[in-house]
Design brief:
The chain has helices at about 5, 20-25, 80-90, 95-100, 105-115, 120-130, 140-150, 160-165; strands at about 55-60, 65-70, 70-75. With about 170 residues, it is mainly alpha-helical. The radius of gyration is 16 Å and the shape is globular.
Length: about 170
């Protein structure tokens, strides 16, 4: 099995088909690493990865990773197409991974102060063209609305997570 084939082997739920947009991405030669989403062959979860989650990308720092959680790319998007549309709107995952702690002005200032590089623009153009996607119109509002309506109690973690976060919590 080739390295590319290994990196395309993303675990999925038995009762849930792989996201169609994600499948399309895997069939292309698009590399999202310039946008802050690295692919790895060793998608071993961290203690904070929800049980049953399918990891599809890593930022490469601080253990930050992206995964499918029963249909969600948690907590950023409802599906992989929306995740890519957020990337198209923001140019990189840096703003997306920090949006939870910013107000709209901080989010927009970050985007203005950190425009996509030439390499990122080229990758974004490939994503838009090959996957036929447009940038998310209101990325900050989309993320905030999703996070406000998301039922976090449905996400189950490993015992190790609960031990680290709260000694009295039970998985």
């Amino acid at each position: 099995i080739s390295e590319k084939e290994k990196s395309n082997q993303i675990p999925v739920y038995e009762d849930q088909p792989m996201d169609k947009t994600f499948q399309k991405l895997l069939q292309t030669d698009i590399d999202l690493s310039s946008l802050g989403v690295e692919r790895r062959t060793d998608n071993e979860p961290y203690f904070c990865t929800p049980k049953g989650a399918s990891v599809f990308g890593w930022t490469g720092v601080d253990g930050i990773h992206f995964c499918f959680v029963r249909g969600y790319v948690h907590p950023l998007a409802k599906n992989f197409a929306d995740f890519l549309q957020l990337l198209l709107a923001c140019g990189d995952v840096a703003a997306l991974e920090q949006a939870w702690m910013w107000d709209k002005a901080q989010f927009e200032t970050f985007l203005q102060d950190n425009p996509p590089t030439q390499e990122q623009q080229e990758t974004l153009a490939l994503v838009a063209t090959k996957l036929k996607l447009m940038p998310m119109e209101r990325p900050w509002a989309y993320i905030k609305e999703l996070q406000a309506s998301f039922d976090y109690s449905k996400i189950k973690y490993t015992k190790e997570y609960y031990d680290v976060v709260d000694q009295n919590a039970k998985p």
